[in-house]
C-alpha cells in the first residue's frame, strides 16, 4: 500500500503491567526485531509523520531519539486513562494503538483516521470485541478524563460512552489479535512466520 504519511501522530501504548504474560510483553522478541515494541514502532514509522511510544519508564534500547518517548505523569497507577491524559496534553488529535496488536493493517488505520472527523473518539470493532485502544482520539476528551481520574474511574469503555464517539466495523478478527499471554504470543509468532 503506497500512501502519504498520515498527518496526525501515532502513539503506541507500551506501559502496561503484562500481568497475564508474567513478564514485560513489549520486550519479548518478535519476528526479526529484538522486541515487540521495536517491531511495532518500525512497522508503523514509515506511515506517520510522527510516531511516539507511551510508557511508564524508558526501557527501549532501540529508540535513539528520546523525544519520541512520552512518559506517564503518574508512575504508580497502571491505567490507559492516565496514559491518554498525558498524550492528549501534547496533541490535538492522535492515532492510538497498543504494542500488543502487531497485525492491525494499514488500510484499517487509514479508514479509522479518515473516518474520524467530527468525532472525539473513533475506534475499531470486530464481531467478537470493541477495540477501545485502536483508533483516533481528540484532546476534547481531556475534560472527561480529568473527571474520571478525580473519581477513580479507569475504564476506557466509560470514556468512550461519555464522548462523541464512532465505531467502525471490521471483519478480520486475526488482524486484532491481542498478545496477552503465552498462548497468544505463540499464535502471533506462528502468524508472523
Automatic annotation (TrEMBL):
Pfam families: NTP_transf_3. One of its GO terms (cellular component) is cytoplasm. Residues 10-139 form the MobA-like NTP transferase domain. Gene3D superfamilies: Spore Coat Polysaccharide Biosynthesis Protein SpsA, Chain A (3.90.550.10). GTP binds at residues 13-15, 25, 72, 100. It catalyses: Mo-molybdopterin + GTP + H(+) = Mo-molybdopterin guanine dinucleotide + diphosphate. One of its GO terms (molecular function) is metal ion binding. It is found in: Cytoplasm. It is an enzyme of class 2 (transferase). Keywords: Cytoplasm, GTP-binding, Magnesium, Metal-binding, Molybdenum cofactor biosynthesis, Nucleotide-binding, Nucleotidyltransferase, Transferase. Transfers a GMP moiety from GTP to Mo-molybdopterin (Mo-MPT) cofactor (Moco or molybdenum cofactor) to form Mo-molybdopterin guanine dinucleotide (Mo-MGD) cofactor. Belongs to the MobA family. This is Probable molybdenum cofactor guanylyltransferase. It comes from Aliarcobacter cryaerophilus ATCC 43158. The lineage of its organism: Bacteria, Pseudomonadati, Campylobacterota, Epsilonproteobacteria, Campylobacterales.
Amino acid at each position: 500500500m503506497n500512501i502519504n504519511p498520515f498527518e496526525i501522530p501515532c502513539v503506541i501504548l507500551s506501559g502496561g503491567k503484562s500481568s497475564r504474560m508474567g513478564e514485560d510483553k513489549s520486550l519479548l522478541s518478535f519476528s526479526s526485531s529484538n522486541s515487540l515494541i521495536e517491531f511495532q514502532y518500525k512497522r508503523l514509522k514509515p506511515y506517520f509523520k510522527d510516531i511516539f511510544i507511551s510508557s511508564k519508564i524508558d526501557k527501549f534500547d532501540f529508540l535513539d531519539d528520546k523525544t519520541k518517548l512520552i512518559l506517564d505523569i503518574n508512575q504508580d497507577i497502571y491505567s490507559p486513562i492516565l496514559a491518554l491524559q498525558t498524550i492528549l496534553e501534547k496533541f490535538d488529535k492522535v492515532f492510538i494503538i497498543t504494542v500488543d496488536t502487531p497485525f492491525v493493517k494499514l488500510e484499517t488505520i487509514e479508514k479509522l483516521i479518515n473516518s474520524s472527523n467530527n468525532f472525539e473518539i473513533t475506534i475499531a470493532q470486530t464481531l467478537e470485541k470493541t477495540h477501545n485502544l485502536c483508533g483516533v482520539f481528540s484532546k476534547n476528551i481531556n475534560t472527561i478524563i480529568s473527571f474520571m481520574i478525580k473519581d477513580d474511574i479507569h475504564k476506557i469503555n466509560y470514556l468512550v460512552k461519555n464522548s462523541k464517539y464512532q465505531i467502525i466495523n471490521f471483519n478480520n478478527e486475526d488482524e486484532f489479535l491481542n498478545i496477552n499471554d503465552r498462548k497468544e504470543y505463540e499464535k502471533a509468532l506462528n502468524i508472523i512466520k
